[in-house]
Amino acid sequence: MIYICGGKYIRLYSILYARLIFSIFRPAPTPLSREKPQSPVPSGTAGPVREIIFRFRVKSYILTFADMKRIDFSKYQGAGNDFVLIDARAADPELTRDEVRRLCDRRFGIGADGLMTLENDPAGTDFYMRYYNSDGGESTMCGNGGRCIALFARHLGIGGRTERFRSSDGIHEAERLGDGQWKLKMIDVAQVRPLGDGRSWFVFTGSPHYVEFTDDVAQVDVAVRGAEIRRRAEFAAAGGTNVNFVQVLEPGRIRVRTFERGVEAETLACGTGVTAAVLATHRTRQPECRDFTVEAMGGILGVKFATRPDGSFSDIFLTGPAERVFTGRIEL
Asked: Is 148 considered catalytic here?
């Protein structure tokens, strides 16, 4: 059962209560024939039997409610990359892998590319961001998710001018720019590693990413090629890889499509993916550019960075939208 504020589907407890009251107190059917209806209960015992049935039904409903796990959630999206967010500071929802998968299911749940819990951070930052893919498994950093959880924290009254939080890959800072845009500081990146074929590269930007350049990303069968590359043996140590196909449009502007592991499908945008694509483009094709605009399927993202003499990257900032779509409660 899902309760949604701001959405068009609303289901309330009153429906269940109405069914309960109707089932308990519904009047006996009026006979349509002249024959006297036969009582299923021997004379003199109807009252006690009705009371037993009443108690049994009420107890059944109470037990059903008691067994349900009620979770308050919010849904956010950044450039079409959408997430379920849960405030877990007061209590751990203790979600199983199957429950995460169900919450992210677009037909039987809320629907999302991933799920995040906002938790207290013993290290002293504003909060800890824990990320789960839609397949139910806990995963690594998500750039679009980082902007969304920063906005979620702001809605919860956490932080100040900026949000400083920790995730699986380290500490991040997020700043609201206005007009729905957020700037997220990513971790430093040590290298862009060539894979030996002259057109593909591997970059770790908080999550593992394969980057391949192509003349026209619109012609790439992302579902087929992405699934094949994602599970190659060379990426097994990283738990598989995300796969990005990149088209260079002009100086400082690229187009990217991404197949995400854990979602096992193309997503409308991937923040760590476009960051990896930008760094690979700078290293191999546009060494003079350090400020890129990226066209993703779900919108426009920006990536700025600095370089060090040893070839590594620092001060990497991912810019893009973050939006609260709706809030609600779900029972599992």
From this structure: no
